[in-house]
Amino acid sequence: MSEEIKSPKIVREAxxxxxxxxxxxxxxxxxxxxxFYSLENIGNVGVCMMAPGDETVVFAIEAEDxxxxxxxxxxxxxxxxxxxxxxxLWWGKDAEALDNSAVxxxxxxxxxxxxxxxxxxxxxxxPAKFVYFLTSPPGIVRRFD
Length: 145
Description:
Blueprint: E1 33-39, E2 43-50, E3 59-61, E4 71-72, E5 78-84, E6 87-92, E7 100-104, E8 109-112, E9 116-122, E10 128-135, E11 143-144
């Protein structure tokens, strides 16, 4: 049995369309993103770009969808690596009361394991950017209001 060997793939940021406010109003994303890769049953990799004051909706990465967060990603994991700017991250179990917070700066990396709701806001005074990776386990069901 022979496996097909794939060459490395290079994607240039300038060639990737931007989704979200100001770019594609029909897209469900609440802040501008560029999705570089979508790998079946593995995950999505992209970049999120936020102006000062921009804030995401509340995301849920929980096994059961209680319907309280605008975006439910299902039981998965998400990672952010901060490239530029400053973000404040809020997380908790209740979409209306995210009780925990942390400030994120360039070089910081976050991991959101299954079981949380969270949002981020550019709380700095310059445009900010982070790389994200969102896992896509087989059979996952997502909801985007």
